[in-house]
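User: Can you model how adenosine-5'-triphosphate sits in this protein?
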Amino acid sequence: MNGEKTKGAEESKAPVSFIEQIIIDDLKEGKNNGRIHTRFPPEPNGYLHIGHAKAICLDFGMAEKYGGKCNLRFDDTNPVKEEVEYIDSIKEDIRWLGFDWENREYYASDYFGKLFDFAIDLIKKGLAYVDDQSSELIAEQKGTPVQPGTESPFAGRSVQENLDLFHRMNKGEFEEGSRVLRARIDMSSPNMHMRDPIIYRIIKSPHHRTGNKWNVYPMYDFAHGQCDYFEEITHSLCTLEFEIHRPLYDWFIDQLMTSDYRPRQIEFNRLNLTYTVMSKRRLLELVRDGKVNGWDDPRMPTLCGLRRRGYTPESVRKFIDLIGYTKVEAINDVSLLEHAVRNDLNLKTPRVFGVLNPLRVIITNYPSGKVEEMEIINNPEDESMGSRMVPFSNEIYIERDDFMENPPRKFFRLAPGSEVRLKGAYIIRCESFKKNPESGIIEEVYCSYDPATKSGEHLSGKKVKGTLHWVSAQHAIDAEVRIYDRLFNHEDPSGQKDRDFREFLNPDSLKVLKNCKLEPSLGSAQPYDKFQFQRLGYFCADPDSTPSRPVFNRTVSLRDTWAKMVSRK
Ligand code: ATP
Ligand code: MG
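Assistant: Here's the modeled complex, given as structure tokens:
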């Protein structure tokens, strides 16, 4: 009992984010009758990216931690850009991260009726009017942050006329862009968003859920806070760019409130990552222009891309935990994410042998036709992962760059006259090699083995410095391996003045190796199965795999090669 108490006390000492502190204080004060209710509100106009994961972990995570609920609410107020495909993918990605909205799947479009009625209410109170000017003209009249705006010539319309026009807008009597409904607030407010913001516009495209029922659609600002209110959300957590919208959010809530309850909007910093872009619009451009192979291309920062690349939900959540939530805009180093991925995969994945650039080695004194099954442990970090048998024979493949004809000093791999250990098998010695006289390419290497050096049997006290991975040639599985590098070769591709982010695409972000040789156990790998290819990195079976031809994606190298490159400079 005592022990438990101490543990609880220790846990509560862990630093919490400013948002978590607000939630703790609110609960302590008994605000909202001690309820916590959050929501995650994606617009279904693209696939979720790792930035969204930051919001998801907070919205769902806080609710989970403090015994509350989190709604999934699709912010589907713009029928032009939204598609059902995106809705399905968003749900899949949230589940993949490990969160559950139970039966609370809502749509802003569920509230179109209520929002329309609320707009009518505002008109009746003299707090909204129909403006016949173009949106360009309205924008011009808004003034600047230091200059007040100019009143619209239509601001003085009578309630009757406004009601009539707004109803007719919704009946489809007017063209798109010919009229809007504006809230009447304050044209000289220092906050530009309060200068009679547009709250409804005419859109005649059918909506994926409400069809042709509506010809007017609420603006985001006129939907979001009200939806929070209708769903009795207590803490509406969003990114910093909405801070300036908060007075408007609160103004609409003020008009709606009938009791003490009101949702509270709190803003935090967005996740930005180096060497990538994090906006659905830009990601969509990459997909549409064929710069990547779809939303789930393993180079994309989308959750489905990371999943296909071999990232685990645990590593994404760990990374989000590490970076935390603040009010300061920053770009996070993508190596921190890769570090979290490595740490997670290190514990979870079996070590296997895969040769990416094969070079044939013939062991001349090993009986041809003989096959030995070598027992190799799957993960030295975790004994419970057991071991497997890997066949060994007189012809094997090693990595081409594990052999050098004229090695520099301290090259502990294979070279004429040198000895290396084949991991889990024998020590071999290089006796000779065959080189193509025209191309200069090494075609075969001839070695002898020492039977007294079999791994695990300790018959010989011989020690060598290098250990190589290998695959028996007759048992090898042919595979394609895709090596990914960063999609952009600039840390901040979308932040460069007068330069299009696409100028910074890394031309070497994908290398396809078609002649790889893998140990036979990998023949049964299923898409998304993950492995450590020894000495090479972490790899994940791709959904493009077929039974006769597996395809693997490199998730991440074993070490941060970029950090090395930078420190060498
Ligand atoms: P994008 O800028 O990529 O188009 P968005 O903000 O338009 O994103 P929404 O679908 O509206 O995308 O976002 C849903 C929620 O996810 C919002 O609450 C938003 O604040 C949050 N979110 C979006 N991008 C990020 C990010 N990079 N970091 C943290 N939260 C984000
Ligand atoms: Mg948005």
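A couple of observations from the model: The pocket of magnesium ion (ligand 2) is lined by residues 43 (CB under 6 Å). The first helix runs from residue 2 to 13.
User: Helpful, thanks.
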